[in-house]
Amino acid sequence: MLGPVILAASRSDRMRRLISAAPGTRQVVDRFIPGETVDEVLPIIQELTDRGLELTMDVVGEDITTPEQAVAARDAYLELIDRLKPLDLGTRAEMSVKLSMFGQALPGGHELALANVRPVVEAAAEIGTTVTLDAEDHTTLDSMFAIHEDLREEFPQTGCVIQAYLFRTEADARRLAANGSRVRLVKGAYKEPASVAHQDKHETDRAYVRVLRTLMQGEGYPMIGSHDPRLISIAQELAHRAGRKPDEYEFQMLYGIRTDEQLRLAAEGHRVRVYTAYGTDWYGYFMRRLAEKPANLRFFARSIVTK
Ligand code: FAD
Question: Where does the record place the Proline dehydrogenase domain (predicted)?
C-alpha cells in the first residue's frame, strides 16, 4: 500500500525539499548512491570490477526543465566516459541514461534528447563500451524506442529497458528479440494506471517470466534486471533450455541491494552487472528504492527520528 504513496511523493517538489534537508537522510541515501562526483565513484568502480562484477553507470537526474540542464547532463556523462578511458574496462563499465534528463519532456524533446544522447553513445563506443536507455513512465516509451532504433543503426550494441508490468511489453519484447537487441528486463518502478499496467505483483511476475522466455529464445542479448531469487533461478533455467552460454545473457542488480547474491552469481561464472547511480540529484532514484521495499522506509524513518 505504501509503494504508490511514496512514488507519488517522488514527483513532489515540496517532499523533495523536506526529505533532502532532513538530518539522517544522507546516511540512508549512501546505501544506494555511493557518491556525488566522478572522483568519489571511480574507486567504487575499481573495487567492484576487482571483485569480478561489471557496472552500468547512471548519473542521477531526471525531469529537467531547461535545455541547458539537458546539455549539462550530456556533459556529466562525457566527463565520466573521459575519466573511465584510462581504466580500460571496455564493456565492463557501460552507461545507463534516462532520456528525461536529456530533455525528452521539453518542447521538441524527442529531437533534443536524441541530439544530446548521441554524443554520449559515440564517446562510449570510442572507449569500447556502450549505453542502455532506461525505461521511464509509459508516456515516454514510444519516443525512447524510436531513439533506440535510431541509435542502433550506427551503434547496434545500444541497449534499452522494458518493464514487465506494462501490457505493451510482451509485443515490445517480441520485436526486440527478433531484431537482436540488448534488452534489460525489469519489473517496473513507476506509478502506472490500471489502463496500461498490471497492478498486482503476481501478475507482473508472471508477465516477467513470459517476456523472459521470449527474450531467451530470441536473437538478442537478455539482461535480467531483478533481485528476485525466484526469477533469477527461472532465468538460469530458461537460459539453459535456450542453449545460451554464460556470456550470452547477464544478470543486473542495483548497487547496495543483495550484494552477496551479486558476488555469488559472479563466482558461479555468471556475468553480473551492478547498476551504480551517483550524482547530486538523487531524490527520484532514492524514492523509487524506498517504494520497492517497505523495510527501507522504516529504516529511513528511524534514521531521521534518531538524528
Ligand atoms: P522485487 O520483488 O521488488 O524484490 C525482490 C527482492 O529483492 C526483495 O524481496 C528484496 O529482498 C530485494 N529488493 C528489491 N528492491 C529492493 C530495494 N529497493 N531495497 C532493498 N531490497 C530490495 N525500473 C524501471 O522502471 N526502469 C528502469 O530502467 C529500471 N532499471 C533497472 C535496472 C536494474 C539493473 C535493476 C535491478 C532494476 C531496474 N529498475 C528499473 C527497477 C525495477 O523495475 C524494480 O523496481 C526493482 O528491480 C525491484 O524489483 P525486483 O525485480 O528486484 O523484485
Answer: 45-301
Count of domains observed in the chain: 1
Separation between Cα atoms, residue 200 and residue 191, nearest integer Å: 12
Q: What is the DSSP string of 110-142?
A: HHHHHHHHHHHHHHHHHTT--EEEPP-SGGGHH
Tell me the pLDDT of the chain averaged across its residues.
94
Count of positions (residues) in the chain = 307
At 149-204, the pLDDT tens digits run 999 999 999 999 999 999 999 999 999 999 999 999 999 999 999 999 999 999 99
The answer on pLDDT for 304 being more than 70 is no
Smallest Cα–Cα separation from 127: which of 78, 85, 79? Answer: 85
Decide: 56 and 94 in contact? Cβ < 8 Å: yes
Q: Is 223 exposed, middle or buried (0-12, 13-18, 19+ CB in 10 A)?
A: buried
For residue 300, being part of any structural domain is answered with: no
For the question of an ipTM over 0.95, the answer is yes
SS3 184: strand
Q: Write the CATH number for 102.
A: 3.20.20.220
Q: Domain for residue 91, yes or no?
A: yes
pLDDT digits (tens, 9 = 90+) for 69-96: 999 999 999 999 999 999 999 999 999 9
Determine whether 137 is an active site residue.
Answer: no
Candidate of 186, 203, 285, 298 to mutate for ligand 1, largest count of ligand atoms within 8 Å of Cβ: 186
Task: Retrieve residue 47's grid coordinates.
Answer: 573495487
Residue 226 lies in a domain: yes
Q: Which residues does 230 contact at the CB level (< 8 Å), separation at least 6?
A: 205
Assess if residue 294 is contained within a domain: no
- Catalytic one of 74, 92, 118, 134: 134
- Residue 158 belongs to what domain range? 34-281
